[in-house]
Specification:
- The chain has 246 residues and is α/β, with parallel strands linked by helices.
- The chain has helices spanning 58-61, 67-71, 85-95, 162-165, 182-188, 193-203; strands spanning 2-7, 21-24, 29-31, 48-52, 78-83, 108-111, 116-118, 122-129, 135-142, 145-150, 170-174, 208-211, 235-237, 243-245.
Length: 246
């Protein structure tokens, strides 16, 4: 299974990063629809598309409004957007309000109310995370493959969601700030590096990829990972257009 990172920044795009969007082309799954969503078009490999939204802050949903171009000329059997019911309602009422977006997009809203079956015998489950306005994490499993996607929360080694991500082959976890910004991370509902590394170790995951990077930090090592990698050696920082096998 191959995961494509189409957007790896938080809050707003930068010269090198679009905002949050991940894709599993083999099974027609997209996780969050930030500004990197436009890149889905060239990677469509199925006649269905299932978009799962962790929450509806603008940096994670703006790309929903790109669907006309993403689907142009494609023969699709179905396009579904999955999110908590109140988040789907907010998406329709606000981002897709007629005064802002006067045409109805071609998708079916699907409230998250339990496990969701995926192509090739897969299954997605969701669970709550702590973030202003509320967000959810996702665990995706197939025979022989598993991953979890955690974004917009403050990591702790004893966080309640550790049990939901335990033992996955790949954990994709937000890390908006380098260490030293803990107060700001708490205030905004995001994570610093050390706490994410400690959580990955506590959860016994096999591999960690960090995403939702502060777009103002343009360094080659924006999180100063080199100083702390020893806490969880199988860690890397996502870049836009990176592909990861798991």
């Amino acid at each position: 299974m191959k995961l494509h990172f189409l957007g790896t920044a938080g809050y707003h795009p930068s010269e090198t990063r679009h905002t949050s969007c991940l894709m599993l082309p083999e099974v027609g799954v997209v996780l969050d629809a930030g500004s990197g969503m436009f890149r889905v078009r060239e990677r469509l490999a199925t006649d269905t598309l299932d978009i799962f939204l962790s929450h509806v802050h603008l940096d994670h949903v703006w790309g929903v409004s790109f669907l006309f171009d993403i689907l142009y000329g494609k023969k699709m059997a179905g396009v579904r957007i999955h999110a908590e019911a109140e988040k789907l309602a907010a998406l329709q009422t606000h981002l897709l309000a007629e005064i802002l977006f006067p045409a109805q997009l071609p998708f079916e809203p699907r409230p998250l109310d339990g496990p969701v079956p995926l192509r090739d015998g897969g299954r997605l489950t969701h669970f709550p995370l702590d973030h202003p306005g509320g967000t959810v994490g996702f665990r995706l499993e197939w025979p022989g493959h598993s991953m979890a996607y955690i974004t917009d929360t403050t990591a702790r080694a004893d966080a309640p969601y550790v049990k939901q991500v335990r033992g996955v082959d790949l954990l994709v976890h937000e890390c908006n700030f380098p260490d030293g910004s803990e107060e700001w991370a708490e205030k905004t509902g995001h994570s610093c590096l050390k706490s994410v590394l400690e959580l990955a170790k506590a959860a016994g995951v096999k591999r960690l990829v960090l995403t939702h990077i502060d777009p103002l930090i343009a360094d080659d090592d924006p999180l100063r990972l080199a100083e702390s990698r020893h806490l969880f050696p199988r860690t890397e920082i996502a870049q836009d257009l990176m592909e990861v096998e798991f």
